Amino acid sequence: MTTNEPSTRVTATIVFESMFGATRRIAEAIGAGLRSAAHVEVVPVHDAGGLASADLLIVGAPTHAHGLSRPQTRADAANWVARAASHLHLEPYYDGDGVREWLAAAPLPARGFAAYDTRADMPRIFSGSAAAGMDKRLRKRGAVPLADYRSFLVDKDSALVAGQVEEAEQWGRLLGARLLESADTRA
């Protein structure tokens, strides 16, 4: 878990699930972009059980089998790493509950949420999107989106495509600006 000193009184929490590190790297980049606007916490989903509500909740997960990971797809990730020719390394706690399970009882944000995923670099119709599922689940629970959900792309080897980290940081700055606007209009 990483935090920073607040520059304002608004708070943002980024909860992520990551198998091979790409989704974590995007969470960290979004957090870097947000830091000038809010106190930011970046938290892996396995540490997110007791989180309090923040002004902004950002949730990220890898796309597995066209949507959010499930216990079987997380087990499949371990099998990919076990292959002799694999260059992949699993993140800690890859086999615990994922974002799908956490969202059912996640604290709703005070001002808004945003969802992102990492997915294969191909048309969304072929890869699916975990972010679409997170967005739908949070809206169904009454949360209000601060931005449209976003996908960040990985190549066939699960490495982030060039420029994705920079785009994530830029998206974090955009979310920070929107968060401050929402704070100003409610003050």
Question: Could you describe the 3D structure shown?
Answer:
It is a single chain. With 187 residues, the protein is α/β, with parallel strands linked by helices. It has a single domain, classed as Flavodoxin domain (Rossmann fold), CATH 3.40.50. Helix content is 36%, strand content 19%. The protein contains six helices and six strands. It has a six-stranded mixed sheet with strand order 1-3-2-4-5-6, sandwiched between helices. The radius of gyration is 16 Å and the shape is globular. The model is unreliable at 4-8 (pLDDT under 50). One of its GO terms (molecular function) is electron transfer activity.
Question: What are its keywords?
Answer:
single chain; about 190 residues; alpha/beta; Rossmann fold; six-stranded mixed sheet; 6 helices; 6 strands; about 35% helix
* Shape annotation: globular
Strand content: 15-25%
The CATH fourth-level homologous superfamily: Flavodoxin domain
Biggest sheet statistics:
6 strands, mixed
The CATH architecture classification is: 3-Layer(aba) Sandwich
Structural class: alpha/beta
Tell me the name of the CATH class: Alpha Beta
Q: What assembly state would you assign to the polypeptide chains in this entry?
A: single chain
Write the layout of secondary structure elements.
Layout: E1 2-3, E2 11-16, H1 22-34, E3 39-44, E4 56-62, H2 71-82, H3 99-103, E5 112-120, H4 124-127, H5 130-140, E6 150-154, H6 164-186
Parallel strand pairs: 2-3, 2-4, 4-5, 5-6
Antiparallel strand pairs: 1-3
GO molecular function: electron transfer activity; FMN binding
Organism: Microbacterium saccharophilum
Protein name: Flavodoxin domain-containing protein
